[in-house]
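Q: Hi! First time doing this. I have a protein sequence and I read that you can turn it into a structure. Is that right? Here it is:
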Amino acid sequence: MNLNDCHNFSDFRQLAKKRLPGPIFHYIDGAADDELTYRRNTAAYEEVDLVPNVLRGVVDIDMSVEVMGQKLDMPLYCAPTALQRLFHHEGERAVARAATKYGTMFGVSSLATVTVEEIAELAPGPKLFQFYFHKDRGLNNALLERARAANFNVMALTVDTITGGNRERDLRTGFTSPPKLNLSSMWSFATHPAWAWNFFTGDKFDMPHLSGHINEGTNVAVSVGDYFSTMLDPTMSWDDAEKLCSQWNGQFALKGIMSVEDAQRAVDIGCTGIMVSNHGGRQLDGSRAPFDQLEEICDAVGDKIDVICEGGIQRGTHVLKALSVGAKAVSGGRLYLYALAAAGQAGVERALGNFKTEIERDMRLMGVQRVDELGRGNLRKRGG
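A: Yes, that's right. Below is the predicted 3D structure, encoded as structure tokens:
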């Protein structure tokens, strides 16, 4: 199997599994506890059907949207994810270039492996910086100021990680950042020589936004769950979020909102966007899927704040369903991470290209030329 055989999400996943050492593949692929929420994130879309209209004379498709003041050429963007140079030696550089090619936004994690300064040079288009609220206030201030100086357009505070989720696959494989060499991992690395060569002979693995502040994750190997539980501030409050929003003084979102109450509170503190998200099912297993919560959240705040549906997106039809409910756009991590692992920049470009092709085709089949023509009238719940 090679990149030309990758026509959908599952194909990229299969190729990524072939090319990555086991612990690293399972870090991307895994979720919390029994992974019920992870599976539900996608299954939720299958319980709602699209109802197309015909004979509409659809000619030119315009799938562009405006999200938190940013014009995107497609209603899907690359959500921020950590540690990307573990998945492919090009890491965030590959994703930045691919997102730029497709005119969409690239979300960059606090735990990125390439600096915001370099990403700003590679990606002149819309950029979002994802903020983890650390116990170290000096680090928090440094993160904010570096993102501001690099002219990032949007700040997104992740609010669902005050402690690490129970990611049992990582416990079984011993996954850490950076990877630890032991008998099990050495065998896995040895049986994936291309990955091992690029990782061990390339630039030293680093999370440069943390360098000079903390050693965990770069010089000291640690699991992501332990990082969240020990380095992030469990006392983070609405007051902290409001203060950060004021400090940023620009487009500001909360990432990880799942309740109407919290969505309304986000409006009250001055946010311009929210990501309805359960962290890809990697935190609280048994929680609702974003798509399941989307309708009531859009009804409550959709006219006051930009609502993004994040998680479980695997098809263009999933995108159209979320937009029809009221989301301004969708985002996801695995939808491009498997592709990154499979083939670097070329993989991410192919994944985004596949989505663009699917969205355009599906809009034609739905009988709409613009995203704002989608609405709940073209949805029916299964059995309804």
